[in-house]
Amino acid sequence: MTERTAALPHPGDPAWTLAYEGFAPEQQGLREALTAIGNGYMVSRGALPWERGDDTHYPATYLAGGYNRLITRIAERDIVNEDLVRLPDWSGLMVHFDGENPIDLADTTWREVRHWLDLRHGVLHLSLIATDPSGRETALHLARVVSMDQPHLAALELTLTPLNWSGRVVIDSGLNGHLINAGVKRYRQLSSTHLEATDAATFQAHTDGPDGPGEEEMIALVSTFSQARLRVGQAARTRLLTAEGRSHPVERRDALAEDGRVRHTLTVQMTHGEPVTVEKVAALYTSRDTAISEPGLAAREAVAEAPPASALVAAHGATWERLWQQADVVFEVDDPEVDPATVQMNVRLHIFHLLQTLSPHSADLDVGVPARGWHGEAYRGHVFWDELFILPFLTLHFPEISAAMLRYRARRLPKARAAARAAGHGGAMFPWQSGSDGREESQVMHLNPRSGRWIPDNTWVQRHVSLAIAVNVANHLAATGDQGFLDNFGAELLIDITRFFASLAEHDPATDRYSIHQVMGPDEYHDGYPEGHRLAGRTALSNNAYTNVLVAWLMGTAGDLLAGLEAARRDQIMGRLGIAPEEPDRWAEMAKKMVVPVMDDGVLEQFEGYAELKEFDWEGYRARYGDIQRLDRILEAEGDSANRYKLSKQADALMLCYLFPEPELSHLLERLGVPFGPEAWQRTINTYLARTSHGSTLSYLVHAWVMARSHPEDAWGMFKTALASDLTDVQGGTTAEGIHLGAMAGTVDLVMRGFSGLAVRRAGDTVGLHFDPVANRRVRRLAFRVRFRGHWLGVEQTPDSLTLTPGPDWDPRTPVLVGGRSMPLGPGRPETIRLTGAPA
Ligand code: BGC
């Protein structure tokens, strides 16, 4: 047999390509998550098409907001969990050489393995040369998309070229509903069968195929979620094509439909050196989709009408190119320790995954912002407070998507109001974890894999989640000026959250101050006071500084919002929401009288009584354990508790320095009677920098943001860790279970707003854009666009200049300030300002 080399495609521009060489079983889960392809409606992990799922491979497709609830009996309790359901797999394709040897890891040897993601066009590629046990060498190239152009369609093309043989190949192409949720090892003791696969069938459809119109046999599967009763209709079409795109003769075509599974088996004679492409196009609809009669029927019709995969891939790529015109962030760095192209790619990878999770298609769905993307089963696809880090980028690029995410919250206001009522409060109390219907989805127990013990999970008392929603509502309003958003649900969200905190806070007549008890801040390592503490016996914690200061901000913001409305609209909103005239008076008072715990030297105290906790032996634990990110688990396994120590999982008090620049924070605190200023700000930051273990990827991001201004010399290192946290799987295994969307979107926002100091600020009746660039000698060039009140503005920053390029329809009355100085902009006219001050 003579050997021929295959001209396999190669990864392209490294600044636009996430590329892997070779196969590394221990990395496969990570690669699958990072090369997942989606469109804001559904996401498919980047698994190899012939793998069915085991501890190395986990092919899975998830529907945005596709949840189902199951009960498990654990530790003598009924535990109820709502999970993001792993859908029947559309992407499976098995190849048998000579009809016998399946291509798989056990029997096939592989070389020249390349696995890459083309970020510019949204295509997953895999190429390799496989040698089967009989020495047959075959070149394979896979290209896969989940269409950003037609959100119900996905497609793959697998091209096989026999390099040293001619003979028979059998291709197995199916839809498989025999799947359970098994992506997260820690959850494996929990119930996991969510799908009732009901209807597997083949069908004939009239299509305009590669050789002209004709009848084609296709496969279909309709399954139902066991509790949510969501019906999922899928259909697929498999064709064999020659290099010229014509139909390739098929020796035999068999179809097998059994319970929950349906497949086509195509037998084909292959000739040495001649490529054959297997093209699979799949459609997915659910009973929640609009403009359909029935999901099974919609899927069958869509797949019959779908264009060839090559055309789908092209239209998908063109849609991505258009998205990039709005969303790209150019980030050129100069750092001998990193490859500049990798850093640029990393920023784009984050934008890419953000837009695959929440795209213009999501704007029409009833979905929230999932902490781990729709990329895996970690945290069950739930929605936490992570939108605080995610919506800023969307609001300044795709405000229709961020409005839709807030509408997800607004639709769940009745549940949030009921939750507040049940807890004895007014207003709306949003759950810490949210899924389908807005009830509290937090787990009540979680497994510590280190000790093997199931322990109570009290993280649900993080009432600050509602504050994150309020911050986003206020920011959305400021950046868009969208009065319809305000009238339809923005005001309602903001006011009902304000009312909740107004009713949660307790007034102490002795001090004339307002306290908030029974809460937790973002630091999940403290859920109560330890034995022997002055405040032991209280439920959860009192007066978390982040919560209290943000509540004071909210009280002021809600009052200002109402006061700033023209009288008729104010009356209308007050009437509709039944706001009693004395309510805004109480808000105004709370804006000045919330308790803010402060330690010696004016350092903000994470919560009341934090100062009395023990110092932690950081060095000792680092020496003993190496990786001490998850100190909660380490200490619990030792029979100890993180509650006893001055240590934090993630930024908590420092969240205030993340949300507010120092002068604004100082102003806010001064209004509360707390003297603050640059020195107290710096001391507060130093205190917590030294006492945080970064058990959440959000922590690196917040610290990097804060350090950019407080510790410019060390900030770059923290920034690099934050940016690479998913790429390098900094938590050692978590990314495989789902990307960290907060850290991803937050680092892009950090590059964009953190380095340029971009803020949307209100001054009296006008809202303007403020820039306060941080000069960093490692950042050679930063360029992006933002959309402010419907108009685009180009921003380009170098170590010594800032150039602003307004679009042709820019409103010249928009206040624009750079470093506090006014910089009026005319439509379409770029302006450059020299930056002074030595870069860090
Ligand atoms: C963090 C939370 C975050 C959640 C989801 C947790 O580990 O502590 O702040 O909301 O992950 O990303």
TrEMBL record:
Domain Glycoside hydrolase family 65 C-terminal: 769-822
Pfam families xref list: Glyco_hydro_65C, Glyco_hydro_65m, Glyco_hydro_65N
Protein name: Trehalose and maltose hydrolase (Possible phosphorylase)
Keyword field: Glycosyltransferase, Hydrolase, Transferase
GO molecular function list: carbohydrate binding; glycosyltransferase activity; hydrolase activity, hydrolyzing O-glycosyl compounds
Domain Glycoside hydrolase family 65 central catalytic: 348-748
GO biological process, one term: carbohydrate metabolic process
Protein family according to the UniProt entry: Belongs to the glycosyl hydrolase 65 family.
InterPro entries in UniProt: 6-hairpin_glycosidase_sf, 6hp_glycosidase-like_sf, Gal_mutarotase_sf_dom, GH65_N, Glyco_hydro_65_C, Glyco_hydro_65_M, Glyco_hydro_65_N, Malt_Pase/Glycosyl_Hdrlase
Coiled-coil ranges from the UniProt annotation: none
Record has Hydrolase as a keyword: yes
Residues annotated as the enzyme's active site: E524 (proton donor)
Record bears the keyword Hydrolase: yes
